[in-house]
Amino acid sequence: MIEEATADAFDGVDIVLASAGGAVSKRLLPEAVKRGAVCIDNTSAFRMDPTVPLVVPEVNPEQLRKHQGIIANPNCSTIQMVVALKPIFERFGLKQVIVSTYQAASGAGQSALNEFFQESRDYLAGKEMTANILPTASDKKHYPLAFNLLPQIDVFEEDGYTHEEWKMIHETKKILLNDMDAEDLKVTATCVRVPVPISHGESVYIEVNDEKATA
Ligand SMILES: NC(=O)c1ccc[n+]([C@@H]2O[C@H](COP(=O)([O-])OP(=O)(O)OC[C@H]3O[C@@H](n4cnc5c(N)ncnc54)[C@H](OP(=O)(O)O)[C@@H]3O)[C@@H](O)[C@H]2O)c1
């Protein structure tokens, strides 16, 4: 059965998988929790809320026990990185992580993917490309992704990082150290949108605390 996602639509629902944007999650998930549901949220709405566990099942499943109705999952680029980092972190400790990402058009949603395909068709037909979405819909200026690279994902923060980069830094700290601002692990990220429809890649440089540690 398909019905409109209103507060009352969650009556009798046990598990909610939410992925309709942060604003929708913020509005509806507290209503679903009130009605007894456990919500797993794919958006960034609750990831930094100290009462909400940020969980990657292969990395920190023990955090699930602390949930109060909402469980967040991290950004896609953070997920694939922390799965690889976890065994190294456990055995050697981590001092520093420097990550560069190569992120596909699909990460910006269906409308960005449609625009990317249209730009590609236009470019190959010798027509001018029109961009209205990327790097981020809320910006005034937009650039084509087709046959291009965009070193900006989401809006810029005051410190010069983009919000996507900010998320990778703080989500990694929250998942590995349970503290989004942990200072004993240094993380920096550079996130780039690349002209492919699907598949994110990343290059990760790390420094460990103790190279000689044994299990
Ligand atoms: N954790 C991750 O790795 C990750 C990765 C990608 C995206 N995300 C997050 O997931 C969310 C969706 O991203 P996306 O790429 O899938 O975007 P998208 O392609 O734009 O899809 C959004 C979907 O949400 C639906 N929707 C919008 N408002 C709704 C409402 N009020 N009630 C029910 N459904 C509604 C839309 O339905 P219509 O098409 O009918 O409008 C559409 O199917 C975003 O918050 C994004 O940041 C997370």
Element layout with pairings:
Elements: E1 15-18, H1 22-34, E2 38-41, E3 70-72, H2 76-92, E4 94-103, H3 110-124, H4 163-177, E5 186-193, E6 201-208
Helix pairs in contact: 2-4
Protein name: Aspartate-semialdehyde dehydrogenase (Asd)
Family: Belongs to the aspartate-semialdehyde dehydrogenase family.
Enzyme class: oxidoreductase
Brief overview:
Belongs to the aspartate-semialdehyde dehydrogenase family. This protein has 215 residues and is of the alpha/beta class.
Describe this structure in words.
28% of the residues lie in helices and 17% in strands. By secondary structure, the protein is an alpha/beta fold. Strand 1 (15-18), helix 1 and strand 2 (38-41) form a beta-alpha-beta unit. Strands 1-2-3 form a three-stranded parallel beta sheet, covered by helices on one side. The chain has a three-stranded mixed beta sheet with strand order 5-4-6. The model has no long low-confidence stretch (mean pLDDT 97). It starts with 14 loop residues before the first strand and ends in a 7-residue tail after the last strand. The protein has two domains: 7-73, Rossmann fold (3-Layer(aba) Sandwich); 77-208, Dihydrodipicolinate Reductase, domain 2, CATH 3.30.360.10. It has helices at 22-34, 76-92, 110-124, 163-177, and strands spanning 15-18, 38-41, 70-72, 94-103, 186-193, 201-208. The chain binds NADP nicotinamide-adenine-dinucleotide phosphate. The site of NADP nicotinamide-adenine-dinucleotide phosphate (NAP) has 15 residues, from helix 1 and helix 3.
